[in-house]
Specification:
- The chain is α+β, with helices and mostly antiparallel strands.
- The protein has 5 helices and 10 strands.
- It folds into 2 domains: 56 residues, SH3 type barrels (Roll); 78 residues, no CATH class.
- Strand 5 and strand 6 form a beta hairpin.
- Helix 3 packs antiparallel against helix 4.
- The radius of gyration is 21 Å and the shape is elongated.
- The chain starts with a helix and ends with a helix.
């Protein structure tokens, strides 16, 4: 009897461990078709840039080629394609602002950030300190006060910089 209870407990635990969690979402394909009212699997941000699994309105599980997806929302999260260095890459949108957007891409254990002036150019944010301050300060030179604070290393936090720029 002890072994039966132990085996049953182990079975229940393993089912809960492997249970998939799905949240409401919407998918836009590269052809601009909208797939609404779907349940999208919740996985890590890094895996979300490589794979997509969803349950359609008929209850069927779908696994489209990630290259066929232009963007998708999963709950409050937004994943979208941006054009960077001659290629389209899928990124997670961290901040959607009036003047500046912030994106992140987790790939091979490293997070790369991109900032985009709305309806303008995109910059891959340098990770090294001195380059970060110079390049980002130059990119945001249309806001001299913020640019100067970045170059003088008074402003270092990327989310704060994006927020200040959007509110300027």
């Amino acid at each position: 009897m002890k072994y039966t209870i132990l085996l049953f407990s182990l079975f229940i635990f393993s089912i809960n461990s492997y249970a998939q969690e799905f949240v409401n979402g919407t998918i836009i394909t590269q052809r601009y078709d909208t797939i609404a009212n779907v349940k999208i699997e919740t996985i890590s941000d890094a895996k979300s840039l490589l794979h997509l699994t969803y349950v359609d309105v008929d209850g069927k599980e779908q696994k489209p080629d990630i290259e066929s997806i232009k963007s998708y929302t999963r709950g409050d999260e937004n994943f979208t394609r941006i054009y960077q260095s001659g290629e389209m890459i899928l990124v997670k949108q961290i901040t959607a602002g009036k003047r500046l957007n912030l994106y992140a891409r987790d790939y091979n254990g490293l997070t790369t950030y991109y900032i985009e002036k709305v309806f303008d150019e995109i910059l891959k944010v340098p990770s090294s300190g001195s380059k970060f301050n110079r390049v980002l300060g130059d990119f945001l030179s249309d806001s001299p006060e913020i640019a100067q604070k970045i170059k003088s290393k008074e402003l270092q936090d990327l989310k704060e910089i994006v927020s200040l720029y959007n509110n300027a």
